[in-house]
Design goal:
Distance between the termini: 19 Å
Low-confidence stretches: none
Largest sheet: 2 strands, antiparallel
Shape: elongated
Radius of gyration: 15 Å
Oligomer: single chain
Order of helices and strands: EHHE
Strand content: under 5%
Length: 82
């Protein structure tokens, strides 16, 4: 269940659908861990490119789940704060 606007780690984007830049330090930690894990996963390319693709898909699914859990409810926005 998405959190209220004042407690969310990931706010919704001003234009479009989805989440924007993190606004809490916890969100920045999540993004730093995601980025570090993504770079560490590049070692999988040595074995087979499909391993890396699966790894990135899994990391992305985990990031999506965290954004759903600790972010505002995603919705389409046209710049208004409604």
């Amino acid at each position: 269940m998405p959190l209220p606007k004042n407690e969310a780690w990931f706010p919704t984007k001003t234009y479009g659908y989805g989440w924007g830049v993190p606004k809490k330090w916890q969100g920045w930690v999540v993004m730093a861990i995601f980025t570090g894990a993504l770079f560490a996963g590049t070692l999988l390319i040595r074995y087979h490119p499909l391993y890396f693709i699966g790894y990135v898909a899994g990391l992305s699914a985990l990031l999506f789940a965290i954004c759903m859990w600790k972010g505002e409810a995603p919705r389409w926005r046209w710049g208004s704060d409604e």
